[in-house]
Amino acid sequence: MDNFQLLNIWLGYELKNIVSDISSFGIESIVIILVFILLLMFVLPKFIQKYKNSDFYLKADFIFIILVFIFMFIPMAHINKARLTPVEKRSLAKYRPLIVLKKEGKIQYKKIKMPKYNIKINLKYGKDFDKWFNDRFFQRQNLIYLHNIIYFNLTDRTNNGFIDKKSLFVYERSDFLHARLSKMKKSFEALEKFNEFCRENNVKLYVIIAPKKADIYAPSASYIDDSEDHKDFIKFLEQWNKKSAVNLIYPYTELLKGKESNFVYFKTDTHWTDDGAYIGYKALMNSIKKDFPKVSVLKKEDFNYKYNNKIRSEYDRVFEWGGSMNHVGVPEFMFKRFHDVKYRYYTHKNANNLIERHFRDKSVKNKLYKYPYGADYKVILLGTSFSENLTEFLPYTFKEVFRIRNNNVRGKGSKDDFKIMKYYKDVIKEYKPDILILCVSYGNVKQLKYIFDE
Q: Are both 292 and 411 inside the same structural domain?
């Protein structure tokens, strides 16, 4: 072993200890201390000398500069070290160090085994640090709220969405973006192929697509109106259902009619209400009943009802104020007036007879439902958060329903959400369902092209 290799080993070992020590102390503390030292050593003495010899107006400028420097240290005063932001419901940027040490086995030196490190410099350190700091600086959320209060009062909108005064709905800007059919072509080709896989395994596939809330409660705002794409999508589906073997359900017309008597989407959330999900359930069951005539469709008389002005739309089935308000960044005290509606929630009259088993760990959000009075079929309900409100109906329709959540699952990135064959092929084969229901939102359709991606 030459001296260069020994030097490399030693440097790697020492740098590892140094980086570990700095990380434990806190990089933000190091930055603050270094800046203070530089100011005290080089800037402050000259600044004091010039201040003594300056006139009144220049002294005022000096005071302003001092205040600016003081305010610059406020964001560094307390760095948020959380993994997630509960308001925006996303992961915060991770700190990426300047020096990256990768352990690459061990090297024998005489009778001692020493770890070998590959030392690399992070050339994107500036951008990585900027993302980390922007996500975690002190009082970040309050600054966002302040910005949105001013912007909202001037425009009735925020950076991510706006309020439609007519219907008092909160929208996200992304909720108005429609994908061109050309971008969806591969998705429908993937669905055809997936349907063949299901058929080979004696599984009947049904795909239900939940429309965007903005298409049901669209405001009259011409500058965000790209409804022509949506009209083309509806025409395409009409042709698709005439020639395709895939059972595809898009309850757009039913929800438009349903909104006349009930709220089919929450005012401060993108998901459908229990009333909206029941409309989707009936449209789905009308299609299933053609192939399984013995299956009974639940009626409204099968349920008891309770009312709440909060939103229940997620896996945990807890009540909250709604995800859209968090996305547009309007503080709670400003949007309380949007919760003047008490939504109707469904509870089956035989809920006590439903056996519900959770499979929640770091990587899955799955549930297994068993109901002795349901139709004698095994069902997989696979899909996004729009599937959650369907779990108030489907588990009471069949004897066994295995609910699989494919998105917003810890341990699996968003790019992997719709790699269905990669993650669920073996599950489908082992569980051997009679029916597989794939439930996605309109915004997810273009991602279905990844079904067979590895």
A: yes
